[in-house]
Each structure stands twice: as structure tokens, then as C-alpha cells.
Design a protein that fits this description.
This protein has one domain: NAD(P)-binding Rossmann-like Domain (Rossmann fold), CATH 3.40.50. The strands form two sheets. It has an eight-stranded mixed β-sheet with strand order 3-2-1-4-5-6-9-10, with helices on both faces. Strands 7-8 form a two-stranded antiparallel ribbon. The longest helix is centred in the C-terminal third of the chain and has 16 residues. It contains eight helices and ten strands. The protein binds NADP nicotinamide-adenine-dinucleotide phosphate. NADP nicotinamide-adenine-dinucleotide phosphate (NAP) binds next to helix 1 and helix 4. The site of NADP nicotinamide-adenine-dinucleotide phosphate has 23 residues, from helix 1 and helix 4. Keywords: Oxidoreductase. This is Pyrroline-5-carboxylate reductase catalytic N-terminal domain-containing protein. InterPro entries: NAD(P)-bd_dom_sf, P5C_Rdtase_cat_N, STEAP_metalloreductase. One of its GO terms (molecular function) is oxidoreductase activity.
């Protein structure tokens, strides 16, 4: 698969490393060509670097991996308003989390994923990989006490969901059906809440009962 990545920071590095190892071709991009080039060199021969527009053009799948406050500008630089992302499968891993307060910097009930979907005309957006720290996405594999990490996906396009499920499996995780894109706001808010717990030293995983108790036993 050809994967364009908007960004050349931590998430681009973590997921780009995993996906090139799994045999995919990756193009990382950024506002600093030297940084993007250095990352591509680190990722190896199946990786290259380019501009945001080149990465959007390159990928069958495009990962948005810039800070939430930079997403609109990065998408514009990628040509979103001119249709460069039309029909592309777009993965949104962003979190609009306010540092220290662990609230969401968006109007209630809205999501980064839906914003991206509105801006990137015709793109098939899937919310994924936003739930864990980048260090988790670097694990080979992200398996804890014998259980592969579950990665919830929200999206409206069946082919895009199926493709992202493959990319989740490729890194040793287990995809889960999170429902349509309208539920991305819940996934984003849940993630912000969990990050707040983790920063307070609470084991967020421990607040959930086993599945058999989830709907009343
Ligand atoms: N880090 C995590 O643990 C984690 C986990 C899950 C989800 N996420 C989400 O993933 C996204 C990327 O996070 P990250 O940790 O990879 O961030 P990062 O390491 O700071 O990298 C961000 C990338 O975006 C670029 N960028 C920053 N501001 C920009 C701007 N105004 N215009 C264009 N490009 C800009 C950076 O370029 P420069 O290098 O030139 O600054 C860099 O290439 C964020 O939305 C974050 O919420 C992060």
C-alpha cells in the first residue's frame, strides 16, 4: 500500500516505522524538508519525503499527523480544497486536547475527524490511532499481558474502514468497530478523559469491567 503522511514528527515516525516494516511504501512530509528527509532516511528504502501536497498525491491512504491547531493549514497545503484528497482514505489520529486541563478545544459534540471530513472534499475519513501515546505505537507488537491492543475505528466508508483495519493488524493490534464518523467526537472525548486520568496517575484501564459485564452480565 502507498501511505502518505502529513507530518514528520512522533506519530509519523512511530506509524511510518511500523508500516514500512510491514512492507508498505511511505511518504512523510512537513514544513521542514530536511526533517522530513531525515525521517524518510531513518525509515529506510521504502520511504521517501515530500511536501504536504506530494504526500497527499502519493498515498492511497493519507495519515494526518500534525498538531490539531495545524490541521487546517496542513490540509490546505496538501490541496484539500482543490480536491487532491478526493476519494483518498484519510486517517485522522489527532487529538484537540487542551494541555493540563485535558478538555477538548472544539465546540461540544464536534470532532477533529468531522472537521477534516468537511475540509478535505470527498475524502473518506477514518478516526484511528488517537487513543494511545506514540510510544505505544512503536511497540513490536503492542500486546499487553497477552492481549493485543484494541484500536477503535470510526468512519462511514466500508472500504476505508477495511483498509485501516489491515493497517491496524499490520502493527500487531486488533481493530474494533467504533461506528460511524459521527461517533468520532465520543472517541476523541474519551481519549482526552483517559489522558487526564493517566496524567493524574490513575490506571485508566482498570476502570473498565470485563466485557461480559458490559451490558449487564
Ligand atoms: N504524540 C503522541 O503521543 C500522540 C498520540 C496520539 C495522537 N497524537 C496526535 O497526532 C498528531 C501529531 O502528533 P505528534 O506527536 O506526531 O506531533 P509532533 O511530533 O509535534 O509532530 C507534528 C508534525 O506537524 C508539523 N507541524 C507542527 N505545526 C505545524 C504547522 N503549523 N504547520 C504545518 N506543520 C506543522 C511538525 O513540523 P515541525 O517538526 O517543523 O514542527 C511535525 O512534522 C497530533 O494531532 C496529536 O494530537 C499524538
Amino acid at each position: 500500500m502507498r501511505i502518505g503522511i502529513l507530518g514528520s514528527g512522533n506519530m509519523a515516525d512511530a506509524l511510518g516505522t511500523q508500516w514500512t516494516r510491514a512492507g508498505h511504501h511511505v511518504m512523510v512530509s512537513g514544513r521542514d524538508p530536511a526533517k522530513a528527509r531525515a525521517l524518510a532516511e531513518r525509515l529506510g528504502p521504502s520511504a521517501r519525503s515530500g511536501t504536504f501536497a506530494e504526500a497527499a498525491e502519493f498515498g492511497d491512504v493519507v495519515l494526518v499527523a500534525v498538531p490539531y491547531s495545524a490541521v487546517a493549514d496542513a490540509l490546505t497545503a496538501a490541496g484539500a480544497e482543490t480536491g487532491t484528497l478526493r476519494d483518498k482514505m484519510l486517517i485522522d489520529c489527532t487529538n484537540a486536547v487542551v494541555p493540563d486541563r485535558f478538555t477538548i478545544d472544539l465546540p461540544t459534540g464536534t470532532s477533529m475527524a468531522e472537521r477534516i471530513s468537511h475540509q478535505a472534499v470527498g475524502a473518506r475519513v477514518v478516526k484511528a490511532f488517537n487513543t494511545c501515546h506514540e510510544s505505544v505505537w512503536r511497540l513490536t507488537p503492542p500486546v499487553f499481558e497477552g492481549r493485543p491492543l484494541v484500536v477503535p475505528l470510526c468512519g462511514d466508508d466500508a472500504e476505508a474502514i477495511a483498509t485501516v483495519r489491515t493497517l491496524v493488524t499490520d502493527i500487531g493490534c486488533e481493530p474494533a468497530d467504533g461506528g460511524p464518523l459521527e461517533r468520532a467526537s465520543l472517541l476523541e472525548a474519551t481519549t482526552a478523559f483517559m489522558i487526564g486520568l493517566w496524567f493524574r496517575g490513575v490506571d485508566a484501564q482498570a476502570m473498565l469491567p470485563p466485557q461480559k459485564y458490559g451490558t449487564g452480565g
